[in-house]
Amino acid sequence: MAKLIYSMLTSLDGYTEDKHGKFGWGVPEDEEVHSYINELTSSVGIYLYGRKMYEVMAYWETAHRIPDQPEFVLDWAHQWKAAEKIVYSSTLTEPRSARTLIKRYFDPEEIQKLKSDAEYDITVDGPELASQAIKAGLVDEFQMIMCPVIVGGGKRFFPAGVRQELELIEDRRFDNGLVVLRYAARN
Fold first, then answer.
1. Model confidence pLDDT, tens digit, residues 21-67
2. Read out DSSP for 168-181?
């Protein structure tokens, strides 16, 4: 059975984007960090996205065409392109990447079946879509990629009104001040 993983860049005060919708403060340009994230996601075969997150991530479909990309960036682009993507959107009509399916709504029962049938892990990306998976009790692992910044407001990593017991399974520190915290959900 595959794990459903919620992984996002977040500020130290728990926001995935600031009150203006910006998140560039969290882009991992550091080779050590980016390579570690590549390693973390190497078990992933399916990405679940909302429309906004998908539109950001669709960049990776053509990132290999940009001259002078470092090898660790090309490695991530290759991983992303090889995976299946499911995008939940009521407005998107056509995917901007290969191996992409568009669905109109998030169905927890369908995700549970997907977890049962999948050979590789699944990520749910974006705090709005992840909140639905968290509230349905579907998330098996939380990966908080904590950036050394406080943004003071915006979109939170965790949804309000949810209580979840967690067990720390890994913490990793980087020279640039970034910390990755991985927690398993206690179900």
1. 888 877 767 899 999 999 999 999 999 999 999 999 999 999 999 99
2. EEEEEE-TTS-EEE
Give the closest residue to 146 by CA, choosing from 26, 59, 3, 24.
26
Name the CA radius of gyration of the chain, rounded. 16
CATH 3.30.420.10 describes domain 4-185:
no
- How would you class 54 by CB atoms within 10 Å of its CB: exposed for 0-12, middle for 13-18, buried for 19 or more? buried
The residue extents of the domains of the chain are 4-185
The CA distance from 153 to 19, in Å, is 5
Distance between CA 10 and CA 26 in Å, rounded?
A: 7
